[in-house]
Automatic annotation (TrEMBL), chain A:
GO annotation, biological process: pyrroloquinoline quinone biosynthetic process
Subunit structure, interactors included: Monomer. Interacts with PqqE.
InterPro entries for this protein: PQQD (IPR008792), PqqD_bac (IPR022479), PqqD_sf (IPR041881)
Keyword annotations from UniProtKB, A to Z: PQQ biosynthesis
Domain of life: Bacteria
GO molecular function list: quinone binding
Presence of the UniProt keyword Cell membrane in the record: no
Protein known as: Pyrroloquinoline quinone biosynthesis peptide chaperone PqqD
Name of encoding gene: pqqD
Lineage: Bacteria, Bacillati, Actinomycetota, Actinomycetes, Pseudonocardiales
A Pfam family: PqqD
Keyword Transmembrane among record annotations: no
This protein's pathway: Cofactor biosynthesis; pyrroloquinoline quinone biosynthesis
UniProtKB/TrEMBL annotation, chain B:
EC numbers, comma separated: 1.21.98.4
Organism: Prauserella cavernicola
PANTHER family documented for this protein: PQQA PEPTIDE CYCLASE, RADICAL SAM DOMAIN PROTEIN
Co-factor: note: Binds 1 [4Fe-4S] cluster. The cluster is coordinated with 3 cysteines and an exchangeable S-adenosyl-L-methionine.
Protein name, UniProt field: PqqA peptide cyclase
Matching InterPro entries: 4Fe4S-binding_SPASM_dom, Aldolase_TIM, Elp3/MiaA/NifB-like_rSAM, PQQ_synth_PqqE_bac, PqqE-like, Radical_SAM_PqqE_MftC-like, rSAM, rSAM_sf
């Protein structure tokens, strides 16, 4: 199982608000830095362990459970899906 | 008062020209002529200013935005700025090659209008042979892998086809279906007697919509917009005046709400004369009904003022002559009687006047 952005969902950096945002039909979701870091790796190819490993090269103390939590919230918001 | 936030979305009405003649058109009675439309360079400047100001969602609308030959250039530009670009279209004029080009240029999403469940009714309501073009447009959008929203305006002359229109949206594989009862502005207000759904129609629609939302969950998001005249509380219009959205009319007039030209006491400003950011933050028109300071009783102390923001300013003006009045739809408004009179009037008119230039 690999997570990816749902069709029509785009991740972009907003200079005005100085934060990453998710854009989709009729909606804008402001993401915190942790969610943005995870979202950038949701390409439909990487598995959760792959994402944890990739984050581990940039941040200390990345735990799989935390990534699972972030993904669960994004799936609830219907911006990420499992393939 | 809260500090004004940057806008999230902009409705860019590229032109008022449209191949359809829908009787429920919400554009003003007096349309902007082609000669008075903003030029390509002016629209590009509007997009630059909007992005700088914080706009992330751009809806290219009209009229029919495909009537603008420079649409591809405008899509490229807004998309390169990082905006999420939606095309709000009748589908007429959307050929395979034209659409492929728009997708290449970064178009993100298409909203397609649907007038009826079958060609006969749909063409009658659109005032032209439109239905088959919509089926083609929907196929193109899905084939390109873009999300598709189907927009239906509901009124007395198509409520009986509600189930058929939901089935049509399913057949089109829409990701989102908006079923919006007519809101009475512009040309639609002129046809209100003929368009206002009956209480029976609305009662019949309720379980149909509820079942569709349940059945299509996860596949197609179904959004139902109520007929506000029949409701006890007003709609949370624009999520508050000058709070999240702005509209730029074809001639560059900047509107806090798409229908705001209806408020003749409001002095509107134009991007040809003043930067967009100044209009958003400093203009009289955007500050007139921003926040809660403008509210009088019963809104001022109402526990719902942060839920519906006093309702719709345009509707308050149209029905009471005072844009700062409580939306007369509200049962707490002293003017609710005006709405009840409209609902109680025998629905004599069944003929509507098709949309024309005026």
């Amino acid at each position: 199982m690999t997570p990816r952005l749902r069709r029509g969902v785009r991740l972009t950096y907003d200079r005005t608000r100085q934060t990453h945002v998710l854009l989709f039909p009729e909606g804008v979701l402001v993401t915190n830095p942790t969610a943005a870091a995870v979202l950038e790796l949701c390409d439909g190819e990487r598995t959760v362990p792959d994402i944890v490993a990739a984050l581990g090269t940039r941040y200390a103390g990345v735990r799989e459970a935390d990534v699972d939590d972030v993904l669960a919230r994004l799936v609830d918001r219907q911006v990420v899906e499992w393939t | 008062m809260d500090v004004t936030q940057p806008p999230l979305g902009m409705l860019a009405e590229l032109t008022h020209r449209c191949p359809l003649h829908c009787p429920y058109c919400s554009n003003p009675l007096e349309l902007v002529t082609r000669a008075n439309e903003l030029s390509t360079a002016q629209w590009i400047s509007v997009f630059d200013q909007a992005r700088e100001l914080g706009v992330l969602q751009v809806h290219l609308s009209g009229g029919e935005p495909l009537a603008r030959p420079d649409l591809p250039e405008l899509v490229s530009h807004a998309s390169e700025l990082g905006c999420y670009v939606s095309l709000v279209t009748s589908g007429l004029g959307l050929t395979e090659s034209r659409f492929a080009d728009l997708v290449d240029r970064g178009l993100a999403h298409v909203q397609l209008s649907v007038q009826g469940a079958d060609a006969e009714r749909a063409n009658l309501l659109a005032g032209t042979k439109a239905h088959d073009h919509k089926l083609t447009a929907a196929r193109l959008v899905k084939a390109a892998g873009l999300p598709l929203s189907v927009n239906v305006v509901l009124h007395r002359a198509n409520h009986d086809q509600l189930e058929g229109m939901i089935a049509l949206a399913e057949q089109m594989e829409a990701d989102r279906l908006e079923l919006a009862n007519t809101q009475f502005y512009g040309w639609a207000l002129r046809n209100r007697d003929a368009l206002l759904p009956t209480r029976e129609q609305l009662a019949a629609a309720e379980p149909v919509v509820r079942a569709a939302i349940e059945r299509l969950r996860g596949r197609m998001q179904v959004v139902y917009v109520l007929s506000d005249y029949y409701e006890p509380y007003p709609k949370p219009c624009m999520s508050g005046w000058g709070a999240q959205q702005l509209t730029v009319a074809p001639d560059g007039t900047v509107l806090p709400c798409p229908a705001a030209t209806a408020i003749t006491t409001l002095s509107l400003e134009n991007v040809r004369e003043r930067p967009l950011a100044e209009i958003w933050y400093d203009s009289e028109s955007f500050n007139a009904y921003r926040g809660e300071d403008w509210m009088r009783e019963p809104c001022r102390t109402c526990d719902r003022r942060s839920v519906d923001f006093g309702g719709c300013r345009c509707q308050a003006f149209q029905l009471t002559g005072d844009a700062a009045a409580t939306d007369p739809v509200c049962e707490r408004s002293p003017d609710r009687g005006l709405v009840d009179l409209i609902l109680e009037a025998p629905s004599g008119a069944s003929e509507f006047v098709m949309r024309g230039p005026r």
